[in-house]
Amino acid sequence: MIGRNVAPEKRSWAMGVAAAAGSFGQFLMVPVEGGLIGGVGWQNALFILACLALGDRAARVRAARAARAPSAGAAQQSIGAALREALGDRSFQLLTAGYFVCGFQVVFIGVHMPSYLKDHGPARRAWRRRRWR
Fold this sequence. Notes:
The chain is mostly helical. It folds into 2 domains: 1-69, no CATH class; 90-133. Helices cover 83% and strands 0% of the residues. The radius of gyration is 22 Å and the shape is extended.
């Protein structure tokens, strides 16, 4: 959507700003989610986050309706054809792999590792102390 609504000479800048905003949003959500869970419980936190996601979706639908249609001279491409083209491009494959690695480690460090350390950290240290006595 950004690529269609921004002039070609400013497209890279706009895509960079959008990517940075998305990354900051992911960074910001981990403490927000933790605060919600600690403050209102996980069930209510899940409900609040679902409402936020629905609100975001509604805003995106409104923005898509307001977006201008592609010009008459623009070539039309189906979603399937676009996916086949993208998946056949080595640069896209490497970019996707990079995003996967980054996302995996961010989710692991932000979500799974703290819970793992909380669940197993003190018990493991106590086990090591008993073992070496």
